[in-house]
Write a structure and sequence with these properties.
Layout: E1 5-8, H1 10-17, H2 21-27, E2 31-35, H3 36-43, H4 50-60, E3 64-66, H5 70-83, H6 87-99, E4 103-105, E5 118-120
Parallel strand pairs: 1-2, 1-4, 2-3, 4-5
Helix pairs in contact: 1-2, 5-6
């Protein structure tokens, strides 16, 4: 890994908030970066309780949330054309590539993205 810096994918964070030990273990001591798409995915879950939203927002304030920039948009377009990833996942992958940081995920859809330094965790 690049020091203690990682880009966290939504799947990793959902498992983290659900108490999955492997996700909690790998995130300890890490400086967490994430795409604004991940922030939106986490906070837009329709069954999110007020307490859960407060917990997630508190966590997000400790992270670096990256907005969509021109270079990220262009990378996401290219990734989507070549891999057929869903647009949110293409943006998350592009964010990781643009930051030159590894993406930690529990989603195997990222495994075939060129240029992407990805670590896929399994339960």
């Amino acid at each position: 890994m690049s020091g203690n810096n990682i880009v966290a994918d939504t799947s990793l964070l959902v498992n983290f908030f659900n108490g999955v030990e492997i996700s909690r273990k790998v995130m300890r001591g890490q400086h967490i970066w994430l795409s604004c798409i991940t922030e939106m995915e986490l906070l837009s879950y329709h069954q999110l309780s007020a307490d859960d939203e407060k917990l997630i927002r508190s966590f997000l304030h400790q992270c670096n949330v990256i907005e969509l920039t021109g270079p990220v948009r262009e990378l996401a377009i290219d990734i989507r054309k070549r891999s057929r990833l869903k647009i949110p996942d293409a943006i998350i992958a592009a964010t990781s590539i643009n930051l030159e940081l590894p993406l930690l995920t529990m989603d195997s859809d990222f495994k075939n993205i060129e240029q992407l330094d990805v670590i896929i965790l399994e339960l």
